[in-house]
Write a structure and sequence with these properties.
The complex is a heterotrimer of chains A (about 325), B (about 280) and C (about 450). Chain B is mainly α. Chain B contains 14 helices and no strands. Helix content of chain B is about 70%, strand content about 0%. The chains are: A mainly alpha (about 325), B mainly alpha (about 280), C alpha/beta (about 450).
Chain lengths: ~325, ~280, ~450
């Protein structure tokens, strides 16, 4: 039984596939490939590279975007390293990401397993779980401003019911960031659910049935059949949610504007504030690039780890 | 279809006991919709009551009247629909082509190209929107729907997601089709795409919602109210000192409902037909 | 379109040729060459001019401007005014105009908040209206001083006043009655205000003495300046290199807010937009709220029984802050500037001034308008508007300095600290001084 599953897993490994494609190399393949890739490359790079280079140059300047900029070299980066607000923003972003990414993926998987059964109204249940992901940031802002009002909010009324003293929520600098994570989970987990559900539907049922016949329990079936089969979904969600949470902005903008007392100032909010509120666009760009370098290091790190794993698998 | 094995039990309830778990969970997530529906039928005075009104004593159509009284509202809806639809189609077509090339075809520099494409995601939009605006200006697209469509016509994520998905598909079926003399595009269209439904679904949902709910970029790129998207139009209901809350709620509901209906419908056809096709895969 | 030249400087022949030829080659319109040297840039062949205005208004504000535009075009058939919100409300205009300026494609007129004009005006693309305002028919001195100061940066006029408002205290009559407390008379001190707020606070009934926006943005910050000015302080000192409220004025003002926070008599509204604060007031859960005239129509809609009195003082001398906004004019050629000035003069004078102030819930920009019968009639129909209108005569305004956002930001944080009852006024003030002075010291 186990070997059978390992075959399934190895089959899904990119490296193994590329090897076999090497064998099947044909004349004209590169030309076809380029014709397929060209539209994407033109649009993505045409509209992506110029802004990237532009902001890199901007990060080396002292600029307010409306008067001629001055070249300052790495001074913006030096200043950032001493800026307590920026340091705090990095901290908040890391806390947010560190909590949101694993929790949303775990929660999404749990809910997807729960929703992956044939009972009446299941379509409605699935749709409802997805609702918060669809509701715009504006509507969410209004909703949470009255749920989490420290004095008149619904949340404190509920807590009161359970004899829990009223909480400050968004007016408490020790709670605001965690509350944001909670809201983000509530609104974002639906997406993970949908992705996992699609993945679960795709697992051939013979595989699960075979496991059941072989006497595998639910836990074993999940571990050896379901979880490996969901790997492409998990990798995608991991990359996507990490990128989204490191660049979180909208939620902060509509609910807290970085407050109270800068306790929810995240990196992209810092960037926006510097560029459009205090006219330090150069400084803002350098903060954006620090984030970008962070992401770059992260992706290189992930790649190295995966390469190591692949080697193990191939051995 | 992978339904976790259900062991036959004596029925002690007229419905599955799972409803005891599923219903509260669904309710927790669905409540804001209930609230959105209720508040869209309240007057401004009811919404402005503090502590908030949860169940209104009377229902009103003020919000809908305000929204529909606005002659441009249907146009905004149409604009949003056009933009979202074109963007979704663009992402599917170019994403599939690009993703397939990266997954299955060998060409020089493919790794570097993919890395470069993904690399454009690491700079937050709050900075890149300025140069992006400059490019739109040079293309003569500022204040047109084109400015909203072109930059997201294909996103690195669509390409990446399709690539990931194609890599996970078994090659044998494609090879068989090849042997039968199917062209490469034919194989892609008849064999690969039907197997990629989860990816098609994910990309459609993501790009549709990202475009449909976007406010940051239209705010910069659009000037004339004839070219507003729905979200941009709704944002203008929120005045500096006075907000037409009932209209904002009604408008938001009108914006959300088609998406939910589409999702509900798509589920029936897309997830379940997938279930039957998955058996063959 | 012609080649833009900064006002006053004549283009060199080579520049003229190069720019002109480039354009001519590009558009195939050599007649444009003639327009380069002359002084009517932006005009069409028949002398007609089209100007674009981003007013950032929707709903009633937009309807009012549309009406005024129609009236203006009837009188001036050669000027076409393309007025639209610009796709944004005034709140997001700064971001939009920054992008527009960076790209070189910008309107002729835009609605810019008072505290932002100094920074926007650094752009060479912002017009200098100094030559226009000295013309006698402009009657420039008729605008209230606060409104004039708000559009003047470094001694140059960069736009027209767009809106002027100020702060007074609105109080909820029912809350005072229910608590058996006498209504404020306007002859009061900040200590009276703090004591009244404390007396009216009733946690059991969920009633607050007063409210204060606590996001730390400009709406939070501008409310402290009347106290600072009253105590003899200023926002920046005469050298322009240091804040002008370090020491007693800043400390005393922060102490007042700290007291409100410590008494828990203030509702600190930590949500963007301060909507909740006014909702609470309108629902009889807040006794007093410092606010501007824009909120009066909202109070009336909500059928709140309210009264308005001037801000409390320390010295007995009346003081308040005016928060004027501006119609900033941009340079798309001299003909367009001229047309923009003509339109803005029309928009901000006489009947139009009354019309606009009435609709926007603001105050007249010109003294002559304030004396007009139309305005007096409007005052009669709005409770408390007379108090705001009278306050215009003594209202002061923020200085139009470039570094203002770097003062406002830390000061906002200090105020929020006080409102949330964290830290001491001394500590908060020294934090502001450190951050803001560092920013002011760098050129």
């Amino acid at each position: 039984m186990k070997t059978q599953f390992r075959v399934a897993v190895v089959n899904r490994e990119p490296v193994a596939q590329e090897r076999s494609s090497l064998r099947r190399r044909r004349y004209g393949e590169a030309g076809t490939a380029w014709s397929y890739v060209l539209p994407s490359a033109v649009i993505i790079l045409g509209l992506g590279i110029v802004p990237m280079v532009w902001s890199l140059v901007l990060s080396l300047q002292s600029s307010d975007l409306i008067t001629p900029a001055q070249w300052v070299g790495l001074k913006n980066y030096q200043a950032l390293s001493h800026d307590p607000t920026f340091r705090a923003a990095v901290g908040h972003t890391l806390i947010y990401t560190g909590l949101f990414v694993p929790l949303s993926i775990a929660g999404g998987l749990g809910l997807a397993l729960l929703l992956n059964r044939r009972v009446r109204l299941i379509g409605l249940y699935r749709t409802l779980v997805f609702v918060p992901f669809v509701v715009s940031a504006t509507a969410q802002g209004v909703l949470f401003s009255f749920i989490f009002d420290s004095h008149f909010g619904l949340a404190n009324a509920v807590l009161h019911w359970f004899h829990i003293p009223p909480q400050g929520f968004f007016s408490d600098k020790n709670q605001a960031l965690y509350l944001l994570v909670l809201i983000a989970l509530w609104s974002g987990v639906g997406f993970c659910v949908v992705v996992y559900l699609a993945g679960l539907q795709d697992i051939p049922s013979e595989l699960v049935e075979a496991a059941a016949i072989d006497g595998a329990g639910r836990a074993a079936t999940f571990r050896y059949v379901v979880w490996p089969a969901l790997r492409p979904m998990t990798v995608f969600l991991l990359v996507w949610e990490t990128l989204q949470s490191l660049q979180v902005f909208d939620m902060v903008f509509v609910t807290t504007r970085g407050g109270p007392l800068e306790s929810t100032t995240v990196v992209v909010f810092f960037v926006w504030q510097q560029a459009f509120e205090v006219f330090n666009a150069g400084y803002a760009a350098s903060a954006a690039y620090v984030l970008a370098f962070g992401l770059l290091l992260l992706s290189i790190g992930i790649r190295l780890v995966r390469r190591g794993e692949e080697r193990k698998v191939n051995r | 279809m992978t339904v976790l094995p259900v062991r036959k039990r004596r029925r002690w309830l007229p419905f599955s006991p799972w409803h005891f778990v599923l219903a509260p969970v669904a309710l927790l997530f669905g409540l804001p919709l209930v609230w959105l529906v209720l508040s869209s039928f309240m007057t401004n005075a009811q919404i402005n009551r503090f502590p908030p009104t949860i169940i209104p004593h009377s229902l009103h159509l003020d919000g809908y009247r305000y929204v529909l009284h606005n002659a441009l509202f249907p146009r905004w809806f149409l604009n949003s629909a056009i933009v979202a639809l074109v963007v979704v189609i663009g992402n599917l077509v170019f994403g599939i082509l690009g993703g397939y090339a990266f997954a299955r075809l060998r060409f020089g520099g493919s790794r570097a190209l993919l890395a470069l494409m993904l690399g454009t995601l690491v700079i937050p939009f709050q900075i890149t929107m300025i140069p992006e605006f400059l490019i739109m200006k040079d293309l003569g697209l500022v204040d047109t729907l084109g400015a909203l469509i072109v930059p997201s016509l294909v996103t690195p994520f669509a390409v990446f997601l399709f690539r990931q998905f194609f890599l996970s598909l078994p090659r044998e079926v494609e090879e068989a089709a090849w042997m039968d003399g199917c062209s490469r595009l034919g194989t892609l269209w008849h064999i690969v795409v039907p197997m990629a439904r989860p990816a098609l679904g994910t990309v459609s949902v993501l790009t549709f919602l990202a475009t449909w709910n976007d406010l940051t970029w239209p705010l910069i790129a659009i000037n004339n109210d004839h070219n507003y998207t729905l979200q941009l139009g709704l944002a203008t209901f929120q005045g500096q000192h006075r907000t037409e809350w009932s209209a904002v709620m009604a408008g938001n509901l009108i914006a959300v409902l088609p998406v939910l209906i589409a999702f509900l419908a798509a589920q029936r056809t897309f997830i379940q037909s997938l279930a039957s096709s998955a058996v063959k895969g | 379109m012609t080649v833009r030249q900064p006002s006053g400087r004549m283009p060199t022949r080579r520049e003229l040729l190069r720019n002109g030829l480039g354009l001519a080659a590009l558009a195939g319109m050599s007649p444009l060459l003639n327009a380069c040297g002359s002084n009517d840039g932006g005009a069409g062949a028949d002398g007609s001019v089209t100007i674009t205005m981003w007013h950032g208004q929707e709903d009633q504000g937009k309807a009012t401007i549309d009406k005024i535009v129609t009236a203006f075009q009837a009188k001036n058939p050669k000027i076409k005014v393309n007025a639209s919100s610009g796709g944004v409300l005034a709140d997001s205009m700064l971001q939009k105009i920054t992008t527009a300026l960076a790209s070189g494609k910008y309107p002729d007129i835009a609605y810019i908040f008072g505290p932002d004009i100094a920074n926007v005006a650094r752009s060479p693309k912002v017009a200098n209206l100094q030559p226009f305002v000295t013309q006698p028919d402009m009657n420039w001195d008729d605008y209230y001083p606060a409104a004039r100061d708000a559009v003047t940066v470094d001694g140059k006029v960069r736009g027209f006043p767009a809106l002027v408002d100020n702060l007074c205290v609105a109080y909820n009559k029912k809350v005072f009655q229910a608590a058996g407390v006498a209504e404020p008379t306007g002859d009061w001190t900040w200590d009276d205000f703090v004591a009244t707020a404390k007396r009216l606070t009733d946690p059991a009934k969920g009633i607050f003495g007063t409210g204060w926006p606590a996001v730390g943005d400009e709406d939070c910050v501008w409310r402290i300046y009347p106290m600072i000015w009253d105590l003899g302080g200023s926002i920046v000192d005469d050298s322009g290199k240091k804040i002008g409220f370090d020491g007693n004025p800043g400390l005393k003002a922060l102490q007042i807010i700290h007291q409100l926070g410590a008494d828990k008599s203030v509702y600190a509204d930590t949500k963007p937009g301060s909507d909740t604060m006014y909702q609470i007031f309108n629902n009889g859960k807040m006794a007093m709220v410092p606010t501007g005239p824009w909120e009066l129509p909202v109070f009336m809609d909500a059928k709140t029984e309210y009264g308005v009195v001037p801000l409390p003082t320390f010295s007995g001398k009346r003081v308040t802050i005016a928060g004027p906004d501006t119609w900033t004019v941009f340079d798309n050629g001299s003909a367009k500037i001229k047309a923009a000035v003509q339109f803005l003069q029309f928009l901000t004078s006489g009947d139009q001034d009354v019309q606009w102030a009435t609709e926007a819930g603001s105050l007249p920009l010109r003294k002559s308008t304030a004396d007009s019968a139309a305005w007096k009639q409007h005052i009669g129909s709005t409770v408390g508007l007379d108090v705001f209108s009278d306050a215009l005569s003594y209202a002061q305004t923020r200085p139009t300095i470039r570094k203002y956002p770097q003062i406002s930001e830390p000061l906002g944080q200090a105020i929020v600290k006080m409102l949330l009852n964290q830290g001491t006024p001394e500590g908060a003030l020294s934090d502001v001084a450190k951050t803001a002075n560092a920013a002011l010291a760098t050129p």
